[in-house]
Amino acid sequence: MFFYVRYAVSYRDLEEIMAERGVQVDHATLNRWVVKFSPLIAAQAQRRKRPTANSWRVDETYIRVKGRWTYLYRAVDRSGQTLDFMLSERRDLAAARHFFKQVIAANDVPDRVVIDKSGANLAGLQAVNVILKFTNCGRTIEIRQVKYLNNILEQDHRFIKRVTHPMMGFKAFHSAAATIAGIETAHMIRKGQIPAKGATAFQIFAEIAA
User: Fold this and answer.
1) For residues 23 and 46, what is the distance between their CA atoms, to the nearest angstrom?
2) What integer is the mean pLDDT of 158-162?
3) Which CATH number belongs to the domain containing residue 123 in this structure?
4) Which residue range or ranges hold the Integrase catalytic domain (predicted)?
């Protein structure tokens, strides 16, 4: 399972690779494992990741599902550490607001958030600020719309796209969301976000999954 979400291979590629090493497993079984267990592993990784900075970068990239483009919301801190992610069928105010609430719940309230020129993202953050103003002792989030400051996130998108590209699109939204959860977790491990002394990426992933 780890090798599928970490490297640019298809299920059939992985089935063949494992067969060459004497392990017989059907590609459909690999798919079921990824869809079932990836969200659980991602939740564990979220709880175990190292502390992140309070200056965030938020943007979306595109993932094809059932022949249509969907939107992968992603947030990293100023040093490129993953904060959270969310696959959405829409790119609108409701989706943006939901994602900002999700990432704040998992990482606390940041000092500032950098976004692109998206009106939906701006409106979503402004809606969150209204809530914070009355529930967070008047403290709100500084919003900055400076495109070049999001370059670190644009670069980070590339890893996710490189792994999803051989998959040739997803057949169902729920399986896409689950698979991306596994890919994002593997990426977090690659970036050293999960504390582990001397363990390989595979060993860290296996420990989280245990």
Assistant:
1) 31
2) 89
3) 3.30.420.10
4) 47-209
Please give the structure tokens belonging to residue 100. 């900002």
Residue 162 within a domain: no
pLDDT in tens, 140-151: 999 999 878 888
State the residue range of the domain holding 147: 55-153
pTM (whole model) above 0.70 = yes
Q: Are residues 104 and 60 in the same domain?
A: yes
Contact indicator for 89, 184 with CB cutoff of 8 Å: no
Least Cα distance to 150 among 77, 83, 94, 90 occurs for 77
- 161 domain residue, yes or no: no
Read off the pLDDT of residues 4-13 as tens digits, 9 standing for 90 and up: 788 777 778 8
In the numeric block, the tokens 């309230």 are attached to 109
Please indicate, yes or no, whether residues 135 and 173 belong to a single structural domain of this protein.
no
Query: Token match 């040739």: residue?
Result: 168
Rounded to whole angstroms, how far apart are CA atoms 172 and 65? 6
Q: Write down the number of H helices and E strands in the chain.
A: 8, 5
Assigned domain for 204 exists: yes
User: Is 104 in the same domain as 129?
Assistant: yes
